[in-house]
Write a structure and sequence with these properties.
Number of strands: 9
Distance between the termini: 14 Å
Strand order of the largest sheet: 4-3-9-7-8
Structural class: alpha/beta
Helix content: 25-40%
Number of domains: 1
């Protein structure tokens, strides 16, 4: 009964926070122009039934991310007007995210939301040549959205600055040119930022294993190539560098630890370079090295919005004591999910 009352109290407080009248979002002229130009690019791609477009210097961009960056407010009353969700009542991401945080909190589990910034927000000049805007100014609406989540007591780790500041002179840029995912360097930078937040929030004791890193070059076939318009030349394979991680002594790959207090939850950004495109070099692997112990992992190649939370529920059904082992959930997914998730943002239980 106490558990249920605490949950209701949290729901009531959060609802009041997110229901306040939203302040207008003021954009500078360069920000308005950038959004307009991205909207034009997206509309052109949509007319061609293409899900990706070509920028300059071989850079490719996912159309849904361009659309996200071209939109204004996409939560609250505005959500059903711009969301790709099939059901209008599931268009607004905030209620589902806040509900998830509340369910975890009453169980003593922290939540860290880690949206992966759109590639065009990090490299605006690669999609709109000559654009006069810095990487820190490309996504003002997303920044406001994160502020709204923080008002509702949801902690958000915005990686925009972290990825924008990567020195690409040695290990390539923060994102792959021809793929929708971050590069090996971007994955590493994200892992370090996440590890810092995890240590600050809950602390993690090393598991007694030592891990060894090694940079390797791999060749990938980017997922955006097949999504280009039919009249655009298709680039070939791309070479990237990834930091592989192995156990010292045995040389074994890092395996997710179901007993870890840290759960990494999310979309394909939690799986890339671990399950596909490369091995031993994904976000889970990098976190193991940075934290000194392997986290647990629930990842999906599909949407990181609702389906992956349902996967967490299924896991807890199989193991009634599963959530009792957790201190923090790191929820990492592409920021485009806020508007592009066709399943929408449903509230979902995390346990019976």
């Amino acid at each position: 009964m106490k558990f249920f009352c605490a949950y209701l109290l949290l729901c009531s407080c959060a609802t009041r926070l997110v229901a306040e009248n939203p302040a207008p979002i003021s954009l500078s002229e360069p920000q308005q122009k950038f959004a307009r130009e991205l909207a034009t690019v997206f509309q052109t791609l949509e007319k061609k039934n293409a899900a990706a477009g070509a920028g300059v210097d071989g850079w490719l961009f996912f159309a849904g991310e361009l659309r996200l960056l071209s939109l204004g407010r996409f939560w609250g009353d505005e959500a059903p007007k711009v969301s790709r969700a099939h059901k209008p009542e599931l268009a607004d991401p905030i209620p589902a995210i806040v509900d998830f945080q509340q369910q975890l909190k009453v169980r003593g589990i922290e939540l860290l939301v880690v949206p992966v910034p759109p590639k065009a927000a990090i490299y605006p000049e690669k999609i709109i040549p000559g654009v006069k805007i810095s990487g820190s100014d490309t996504a003002p609406v997303l920044r406001r959205f994160y502020d709204e989540l923080r008002k509702a007591q949801v902690e958000v780790l915005d990686l925009t600055t972290t990825l924008s500041e990567i020195d690409d002179s040695n290990r390539l840029p923060a994102f792959c040119k021809t793929d929708s995912h971050w590069s090996g360097a971007g994955c590493l930078a994200a892992a370090r930022a996440i590890a810092d937040s995890v240590r600050r929030k809950v602390g993690v004791s090393p598991a007694g294993k030592e891990f060894l890193p090694e940079w390797k070059d791999v060749q990938i076939n980017g997922d955006l190539v097949s999504l280009l318009p039919h009249d655009v030349a298709k680039p070939g394979p791309e070479k990237i560098s990834v930091r592989t991680i192995r156990e010292k002594g045995t040389g074994a790959a890092v395996e997710p630890d179901p007993n870890s207090p840290v759960l990494l939850l999310g979309d394909s950004h939690t799986l890339v370079y671990h399950d596909f495109l490369a091995e031993r070099a994904g976000l889970m692997d990098q976190l193991a090295f940075e934290l000194g112990s392997a986290p647990d992992l629930i990842g999906t190649r599909g949407s990181g919005a609702t389906p992956v939370r349902l996967n967490l529920y299924r896991r807890s059904l199989k193991d009634a004591g599963y959530l009792a082992k957790k201190k923090i959930v790191v929820w990492c997914f592409a920021a485009r999910e806020f508007t592009e998730a066709t399943e929408g943002w449903a509230k979902a239980p995390i346990a019976k």
